[in-house]
Structures are given as structure tokens and as C-alpha cells.
Amino acid sequence: APLHTVVDEADVELTAAWQRAGFTVRRREWEYAVPTDPRVTGLDAVLPPPGVTIVPAGQADEDLLRSVDRAIRAEVEASVGWQSMPAEVIPFPEGDTVVDPSKYAVAATSERYLGLIRVVVPIRPRIGLLAVRAGERRRGIARALLAHALETQHLAGHATAFTEVQESNRAASALFEGVGARRLSSNLELAR
After folding, report:
1. How far from the centroid of its chain's Cα atoms is residue 44's Cα?
2. Exposed e or buried b per residue across 39-70, where buried means at least 16 C-beta atoms within 10 angstroms of its C-beta
3. CA gap 71, 6 in Å, rounded
4. Does residue 119 contact residue 149 with C-beta atoms inside 8 Å?
5. Considering the entire predicted model, what is its pTM?
6. What percent of the chain has pLDDT over 90?
7. DSSP symbol at 84
8. Virtual CA dihedral for 59, 135, 163, 43, nearest 10 degrees?
9. Parallel, antiparallel, or unpaired: how do β-strands 160-166 and 126-132 relate?
10. Residues 116, 98, 113, CA angle at the centre, nearest 5°?
11. For residue 36, how many other CB atoms are within 10 A of its CB?
């Protein structure tokens, strides 16, 4: 199995040491600081599309949450593959990728969940996952989920949230940069 490590791209010496050990750059992730104030982000008037509601974190039905998570992961794997997504460092029990359902808000219709966002706040708010089912994209669902999550963090007293975006994911970069996120740094994933 391949070995992986993540380094701060600004740490040239550490990166060079890993490369001397035979590691090569697999991908780059941008770290963003995202303002949470809806007046700053421009998300204060954002609503989900008709027929879609946002279910706040901790209120999602666990079975439906796990179902949409599995569906989205299968769609990603069938298209670009999870290797193109930001590195997840959450330890998952075998077969379960939703470790703490209370961290997820979801976009829902009366029949099913369409998308989800996971925000954890160990030290500072971090958006670890924002995803919408393939057939439901380009309707404003991701934007509505982001608006909800950022406003929730703003009301909790956090001025900024943080996230990582793989550099080739132009749609995600555009979404975050469109709400005033600024790049802070970049990380390199190295593999051997």
C-alpha cells in the first residue's frame, strides 16, 4: 500500500526531505479562512431552492444521513474518486463514515436528503465536508448549506471558519472565494 504524508507547502526543507525519501507530490490543497457574517459573505438572503429545506446540525435523521453520505461517496468514487478530495483524518469505524451525526446539517426534500455539510469545532470551526448528490447540483443547494453553516458559526461567536479545497476543484474554490474566503496557505499531499 502507498504511504502518504501531508506537509505545509511553505516548509521547503521538510518537503525536500520527504522528496529525498522518495515521496512525490500527489496533490495540493488550499486552506481558506471563510468569514461567517452573512452581511460580509453576501449569503444573508440565500434560501434553498423551492421544495428544499435545511435541517440543522444534530437534527438529521441518522438513517437518511447515512444514506445520503453513502450515495455521495459512491458518486464521487465513480467519478473523480476520493483520492481527489481533501484528506480526511477522521478515524472511521469499519463501514461507517458518519462518525458523529450531530456535526451534520443536511438539505432535504420530503422524500430524501440531497446534500450535507459537516462542521467541527475542536478549536476553531472547520468545514470538513460539503457535498450534494450529483443529480441535484447547480441548484444552489451547496450555497444554501454553506449559508446555514456559516450563519450558525457566526451566531455562536465565531468570526471565521476554515476549510481545505483541493486545487483542481474549481467549483468549490469558486464557491468559497465567492463568499469572501481568502487563501491562507497550501498543503501538499506526498505519496510513495
Report:
1. 20
2. eebebeebebeeebebbebeebeeeebbebbe
3. 28
4. yes
5. 0.86
6. 75
7. G
8. -70
9. parallel
10. 35
11. 22
Domains in the chain with CATH codes:
31-90+97-175 (3.40.630.30)
Query: Contact at 8 Å (CB) between 65 and 106?
Result: yes
- Total count of residues recorded for the chain: 192
The percent helix, strand, coil of the chain (3-state, each to 5) is: 35, 30, 40
CA distance 131 to 145: 9
Q: Grid coordinates standing for 108?
A: 432535504
Give one DSSP letter per residue of 20-70, joined into a string: HTT-EEEEEEEEEEEE--HHHHT-TT--PPTT-EEEPTT-S-HHHHHHHHH
Q: Round to whole Å and give the CA distance between 21 and 56.
A: 46
What pLDDT, in 10s, does the model give residues 72-111?
Answer: 988 888 876 666 555 554 555 566 666 688 999 999 999 9
